[in-house]
Amino acid sequence: MKARNLARDPYASLCVMNDGFFGEWVQAEGTAELIHLPDAMPLLEEYYRRLSGEHPDWAEYRAAMQRDRRLIVRITIERAGPNVSG
Q1: Strand order across the beta sheet in which 25-35 lies
Q2: In a 3-state reduction of DSSP, which class is residue 34?
Q3: What local confidence, expressed as pLDDT, does residue 76 receive?
């Protein structure tokens, strides 16, 4: 549903909070670009490598990405905040 909504209206907002929920946080907003397979595959592989290192079976990983119809959402940040604290 998220990808469908972004295809209709490509404006995205992302809020990141710390593990304790209360405290520091940041919100970024901008225009989203949907990158579908097969163009998304190298980006999905890079995303996996950055988070988890090498996959034990890249063929299995690629098949799962195809089966799940995964994609990449690239957001061009136009605004971020908060720009004050306290």
Answers
A1: 11-17, 25-35, 72-81
A2: strand
A3: 98
* CATH number for position 39: 2.30.110.10
Residues 27-38: tens digit of each pLDDT: 999 999 999 999
Evaluate whether residue 25 is within a structural domain. yes
Domain count, the chain: 1
Please name the helix (run of DSSP H) or strand (run of DSSP E) that holds residue 31, with its range, or none.
strand 25-35
User: In this structure, is residue 15 part of a structural domain?
Assistant: yes
Residue 84 pLDDT: 65
Query: How is residue 60 written in tokens?
Result: 């299995």
Beta partners for residue 81, in sequence order: 27
Domain range for 8:
2-79
Residues of the chain with pLDDT under 50: none
0.85 surpassed by pTM: no
Dist. CA 33–CA 28, nearest whole Å: 15
Residue 45 CA to residue 83 CA, distance in Å, equals: 33
